[in-house]
Structures are given as structure tokens and as C-alpha cells.
Amino acid sequence: MSQFTELRGLYHLRETIGSGGFAKVKLAYHALTGEKVAIKIMDKRSLGEDLPRVKTEIEAMKDLCHQHICKLYQVIETETKFFMILEYCPEGELFDYIVSKDKLSEEEARVFFRQIVAAVAYIHSQGYAHRDLKPENLLLDEDQNLKLIDFGLCAKPKGGMDSQLFTCCGSPAYAAPELVSGREYLGSEADLWSMGILLYALLCGYLPFDDDKIPSLYKKIQSGKYDTPSWLSDESKSLIASMLQVDPKRRVTIRHLLAHPWLMADAQCPVEWHSKYKRCLDEDCLTELAVHYGKTKKDMEASVSEFKFDYLTATYFLLLEKKMKGRPVRLLNKIRNHE
Ligand SMILES: CN(C)C[C@H]1CC[C@H](N2C(=O)NCc3cnc4ccc(-c5cc(Cl)c(O)c(Cl)c5)cc4c32)CC1
């Protein structure tokens, strides 16, 4: 295994676990906590015009800290490579999960869709639009919770979420009519359309608009006509219809989704979309870090709160993960760094 010198001593690299377009994803262990991570490795030379997408994704993921968004722990940039150290999601893509089950029951689809609504409500509240929402970009963690990935196409319009976007991007079958028509569009409205396609795929096991030829696919999308199979309940039909509105101004907004009857069924409360991560730093993690690095709590807090997405940021977040999973808030190999 060719050990990348930049990772030596920090991460123990294991096998390649997947690929995302222009990236290779490897499993690794974070040396100080022993926690598993996924390392997305990109070679700058082969990125070509995709280089801006990487920078977009890195900057967006530094801002986004949420229980249903794949966590970015550390970024290492060398002359020839980018390494993104990310939250490991052992159960793979939601896409494969749907395929394995043909389609999901309303109850199971509801559990997943509530998590997707929470993630998108949070992203939109931070001024971002994902713009590539699809089951391939939703991974399952060890507790079957969804984690949204691939922010390479996300947008944080300069003039806020209400300013128009032009770049036509994302996956055609999930793209909104205004997007495929090359008209100006709002990222947030395009995301809501993609969520309608997503919910339809969860409940039906196939796509509402599909065609081998792109031009006829686009015509179907622009028509907004899709068939609703008999097994769909009236509530789920109306929810899907509210998202698959061809006119973006008539499309439901994420705020309205939070308390939609279908999402609230099974006597649930409105979707709790806020991030569970607090702004303030966790005392137990700071203490363990201070002891390990031989620093005062105060100095440790000052260093951690810079969130430079260096090894310290990764170690803090992974210690926090351990705590949230009820594991001991302890660092391994307690070699005290004597300054
Ligand atoms: C659209 N698809 C093809 C994309 C594939 C990419 C590889 C994925 N993957 C595995 O193949 N094995 C397991 C596995 C475990 N943990 C992961 C954690 C993060 C990411 C990740 C995160 C971000 Cl933010 C990102 O941009 C990219 Cl590309 C990947 C991938 C993981 C993963 C599955 C989806």
C-alpha cells in the first residue's frame, strides 16, 4: 500500500472502498482515536476543469455541520493532491438500498425522507443549494441514518438564496423543468423538485421521468406528467405533486414540507431540522485533548475553535463522535508531546 507521506502517522490507510467520478475513496483509521474515516483522494492533474468543483465542495462542507450531512474532518492539500478526510458511512448508497428492496413502504420512506428534509432545510438555512440531490448521494451510516454527500455542484449564490442561477448541472432525471429549459432558476426551488423525484423513487422504485434519449427526457420533465402507481396513498401523491410542480413559484417550499401531514403521520412531530452540533465546544473533548497535548484547557479551546480543518479539527470531531455514540472520550497511544 503506497503510504501517502502526508498521511503517515495521522491515518492508517486501508483498501479503496469506492470512487466518486474524479476521486478515489479509501477506508482509513484516524490514529489518535482509532475511528474509521473515508479519505477522498483527488489528483490535481487529472481534475482539469473539475478543480473548481473540489474547492466548492471543500468550502461548502467546512460551513455545513449537521447530523444528516457527511462530516468533513480535515483537508490536506499538497502540490499534486487533495485529501478530504470524511465521515465513514459503512452501509453505502441509499440507491443500492432501494434497489435491494425494490421499493420502500411508506413508513420506511417517511423515516428516510424526514432526514432528507432536515438536511435540505439546514443547507438552505445556511444559504446553500445542493443541486445534485439523488439516492446515489445519500449514504447510510452504521445506524441506518442518511448522510448527504457530494457538494461539488452546490451553490451559495452571492446575492443570497434568492438570486438566480444559470449553470445547468446535476443529474438529468432529477433536474427541474426550469433548469433543463436553460431558464434562470433558484437553487432552492430546483432542490425541492429533486426531492420530489427522490420521494417518488423511494416509494415506487423507479423514476417518474425516464428516457434513454436526453431530449425526450427533458420533454417529459417539462410536461410535468408522470404516472402514479396504485399503491401510493393519497397523502403521498399530494406531497409528491406539491414538489413536482413545473412552475417553480407554485412548488412547495422546504419550510412548508417540515409540517406536511404525510411527514407528520405516525403521530410524529414536525421535522427537527436544526443541527444537533452545538456552537460551543464540548468540555470532555477539550479536556482529553488538553491532557494529550500537554496544554491548558484555555489554550486548547483557543486552538480547537480556530477550526482550521487540520488534524486537530479532525481529532476534536472524532472524539465528539465517540462521545455521541456513547464510547469513551479517550485518545489512543497516550504519548505526551513534551514541547
Ligand atoms: C455518486 N456515488 C457514486 C458516489 C460514491 C462515492 C463513494 C461512496 N463510498 C463508497 O463507495 N463506499 C463506502 C463509503 C463509505 N463512506 C463514505 C464516506 C464519504 C464518501 C464521500 C463523501 C463525499 Cl462528500 C464525496 O464527495 C464523495 Cl465522492 C464520497 C463516500 C463513502 C463511501 C459511495 C458513493
Protein architecture, described:
The chain is α+β, with helices and mostly antiparallel strands. The protein is 38% helix and 13% strand. It has 13 helices and 7 strands. The chain has helices at 44-47, 51-63, 94-101, 106-125, 177-180, 187-204, 214-223, 234-243, 254-257, 261-264, 283-293, 297-304, 311-324; strands at 11-20, 23-30, 36-43, 72-77, 81-87, 138-140, 146-148. The model is unreliable at 335-339 (pLDDT under 50). The ligand CN(C)C[C@H]1CC[C@H](N2C(=O)NCc3cnc4ccc(-c5cc(Cl)c(O)c(Cl)c5)cc4c32)CC1 is lined by residues 17-18, 20, 23, 25, 38, 40, 57, 70, 86, 88-89, 92-93, 136-137, 139, 149-150.
- According to DSSP, the number of beta strands is 7
Largest sheet: 5 strands, antiparallel
Anisotropy-based shape: globular
Cα(first) to Cα(last) distance is: 32 Å
Number of helical runs? 13
Low-confidence stretches: 335-339
Helix content: 25-40%
Which ligands accompany this protein? the ligand CN(C)C[C@H]1CC[C@H](N2C(=O)NCc3cnc4ccc(-c5cc(Cl)c(O)c(Cl)c5)cc4c32)CC1
- From the alpha carbons, calculate the radius of gyration and give it in angstroms: 21 Å
Structural class of the helix and strand makeup? Answer: alpha+beta
The helix-strand sequence is EEEHHEEHHEEHHHHHHHHH
Mean of all residue-level pLDDT scores: 93
Strand order of the largest sheet: 1-2-3-5-4
Strand content: 5-15%
